[in-house]
Amino acid sequence: MFGYALAVLLSVSVALLIEWSVRSEEGPVPETPARALSRHELSLYHGGAGSRGLYLAILGQVFDVHKGYKHYGPGGAYHFMAGKDASLAFITGDFTENGLTDDVSSLSPLQVVALYDWLAFYHKEYKTVGTVTGRFYDESGEPTKALLQVRAALEEGQRIKAQSEAERARYPACNSEWSPSRGGRVWCSSKSGGVIREWAGVPRKLFSPGSSGVRCVCVEDPFSAEEDPTLQEYDGCPPHADSCTVIEH
Ligand code: HEM
Fold this sequence. Notes:
Helix 5 crosses helix 6. By secondary structure, this protein is α+β, with helices and mostly antiparallel strands. It folds into two domains: about 30-165, Flavocytochrome B2, Chain A, domain 1, CATH 3.10.120; about 170-245, no CATH class. It is about 35% helix and about 20% strand. It binds protoporphyrin IX containing FE. Protoporphyrin IX containing FE binds next to helix 4. Protoporphyrin IX containing FE binds near residues 68, 78, 89 and 93.
């Protein structure tokens, strides 16, 4: 009998555990139903005299930021963000009336990634209230076309970021120095460019497509580098040298 009860208890616990893990993958379960606020309603949560509370929105999601009263309350450095969705200003730092807008269509994909980092910050630090009806969500709290476009830009930005991180790991930046007497020097070490690795590599000039600048990168294998048209040796520097003098033209 005792064995049977134990087995039942165990299977119930396992079922609960599975249920919990499925739920936590879907994100936290809201304690109160999400509300859809109008812009006007949101503006009543400015934290000042006669206000209903202290909220702000980012990408159409509303957060209760009362915990951060010193930042967002009257007299706080970021009070101008209270009671509204000023998504654009999180990236531009333009806190003028024109800059405090939720129109983020001017942002590049990488800037959209940075904006989502702010959104993640608010999810981590503050309580979600719901959505603000307008640019990003409709009255039933469903995403609008504008939000779907921002999400597409986010995906593009994440792709670009992953690509540039992979390039940074493959071709880390060189160390460099310049002095009036000796001129410039670039060299590779196993920690250059902030990438800690098991190889030091040899310096090469990297010409990035779409960018006019040339930068010095460390290349692990000088032989395979010969086949890459974006890489070039430094003038007067032996192909296997780990340090090169930079001759100005
Ligand atoms: C794009 C420009 C910027 C934006 C959008 C921005 C936004 C913010 C926000 C929203 C907070 C409050 C975070 C919270 O809820 O805890 C904050 C805090 C803070 N920011 Fe900025 N900020 C910007 C630039 C700067 C600059 C340039 C400085 C310094 C020169 C600065 C210094 C601070 C400091 C010291 C805090 C408070 C940290 C604390 O007491 O916890 N911010 N910022």
